[in-house]
Amino acid sequence: MKKITFLLFITLCVTAQSADIVKLENRFLQLELGRTPAPFIEKLVHKSSGQAVVAGPANKNLFSILLTPADGGPTTIESSQAIESNISAEGGKVMLRYGKFPAGNLTVEVMVTCSDDNPQTLWTIRIGNKTGRQIKAVRFPQVLAVPALGNAEDDGIVLPAYAGTLIENPAANWKNGQSVTLDYPGNLSAQFIAYQDRAAGLYLTSRDTRGYPMSFTVFKQPDGYRFWHEFKPVTSTTNWQNPYPVALGVTQGTWHDTANQYKHWAVQQSWCAKKLAERTDIPAWLKDGPDVHVCEVRTYNGARACNGSYYPKIQDHLRTFRNKIDGPVVAMLAGWENHRRWTGGDYFPIFDATNAKPVITALKQDGFRPFIYLSGGFYTYWNEGTDGGEISAAQKFLPAFVRDEKTGKPKEYVLNESNPAGDWKRHSYAFCVNAPQTKEFFCDVIAQTHMLGVDVLQLDQTTSGAGDACYSTTHHHLPGMGLYQSEGFWALLDEMRQYGKRLAPDFALLHEEVHEQLIPHLDGFHVREYYEKRWYRGYPGAVGIPLFSYLYHEYALGYGGDSAGLSKDNNRWHVRCHALNLITGRTPGSSIWSSQQSMYDAHPDQITMIRNHSRLLKTRAKDCLMLGRMLHPFELDTPKLSITAPAQRGGKWVSEKIETPAILTSSWLSPSGRIGHLFVNMAESPQPLEVNLDTRNALTAKSYDAEIYRSTTGETFKPLWQNEKLPKKFTAKLEPGEAVFVELRENGR
After folding, report:
1. 435-479 pLDDT, tens per residue?
2. What is the pTM of this model?
3. C-beta of residue 480 within 8 angstroms of C-beta of residue 471
4. Nearest partner of 368 among 457, 285, 284, judged by Cα
5. Beta-carbon count within 10 A of 713 CB
6. Three-class SS state of 110
7. By C-alpha distance, which of 77, 217, 63 is closest to 140?
8. What's 430-469 look like in SS3?
């Protein structure tokens, strides 16, 4: 009988109450809710480690409500301002009630639930609003995490900012007042945020499946890190209830372990209905992993003014490059537009049309796939500076453009790429995703590019993953932010893909940067796994992690980006970029833009890395690297290389050093159940490798056969061992630039 009681205690979610707190706990966590001044999160303990991730916070607010009166500025109502409040608990459920706020007739009910065997608690909120004011935002739940989890040096903040970011040691790298907000629409590619070390951590996530505007924020203050989820403007002047739940819980291990928590929920959602191996709507040529080579079709002088066409030379250029890398090439024809590069909307006739069409036809006959970027939903009406001028065609589509909240006129967008060589500004409007003309316009663009022989397009500069908020009253949506931004964008992508594939079965539509809910609406993504010290990895202490690849590699295809460069000098940053495309399971990528000679002069180490990538994808390793599930990587004992990286600081480009392991590694599970371990030597000298091979976080069989591929000894797999139990020690010496792939398959299969 005692034994049975013990088992019930560790598996059931239970509540306990006292005069000061209410406890909610299961075998993973213990959550304590304080009663005064109004209910708040007093403590959150990761039970197996005993680490409190929240402990006695000075800030006792569980939520904030932003109210905006029609004739004044916003008013923020905090939960701690409630004059009346109470907590009731029963089983695994706790109800928190708040009333008598300074704003007047406002009431709030919060429900917290805890299941038997889950490291997360589930939170919902309902607001009774009779103030006559609009609810503009709700920050909920809010929690203040401790300033350090044991030794602060190994603490990290996991951010699903596009491809993925980790803030290392924020105690040292962040000043008080430093914050990060990840928005959707925006740079939020998956719905969670975490603060952890290997022993314990805090995990906050939402469970939205429809594409509501939202954000996650972490803010450093002297007594810790304040985290919250925010429901974006909900345009409600009456009662409101959260449209999806939010979960707060605990985690431990590496960021991969936290990603596993999220992935357990995510793979059950509609965007993971089919894996890449099952998706017949994505063309086979894209799944083969071609190199995406970015090359301008224009030439320029020192003042950045166009002074000629590269079309007459581009076929020889691409043939030379294809021979160098020994793999298929997709040619991204930058500068293809009618006006100067990145001029949206008035695309036709394209630049140097006389040469362009026959050259594009010849490229396709030669086995190349021409590829162009569309400048998102932008329609440029004025190019300022070099090669500038007004573009009157924009006036034709004025009714379809996003309307500005204040003026009611088409909203203006400016892209400023001016530099000391001269002014360069693009002034544009943008299509509203819900406007009746929008789908018609983009399908017409697809029809015209198809006539040119181009059936690979990217919707560029739509990095937010949805349409911009529009304040029109004629576009069949409520003015302001809303679900239509996502739903309209998804419908636009679906219409574009379906129309393109009717014209050409091998048509592909790609998107700049990753978002989980876009997965079923696209053929693939443009991913910059190699970025460091800029944009979404420009925060203090930030380093890149392949988080999105770990979550969704078997569901979403990504190509190697527009910034993996080629140069004559021995630029180790370029080598690193190409190695990271390989190690993270992206296609090869190479970019020279208008420096076309750089392809001919490219340093051998850069070409070697791309060639190793291309050749490996000709083998069955492709099943792992293009279609497989990313597993936990090995943590190798290998030297660190100091590499000079370009960094953005204060709006200027500077050079900074970053550390990169001499041997990069990743591990994979193929659709057929084979395990693949990849090792790439980044160094300019031979590097020893010693590792105990296993199946990482995949299931393990009784014994395995192994075969090995080495880029320095041929293009085939060779036997390594048969019928061996794991883990098994593997040693090798990797030559400079060498790629080694070890495949494990269950004995007898």
Report:
1. 999 999 999 999 999 999 999 999 999 999 999 999 999 999 999
2. 0.96
3. yes
4. 285
5. 12
6. strand
7. 63
8. EECCCCHHHHHHHHHHHHHHHHHCCCEEEECCCCCCCCCC
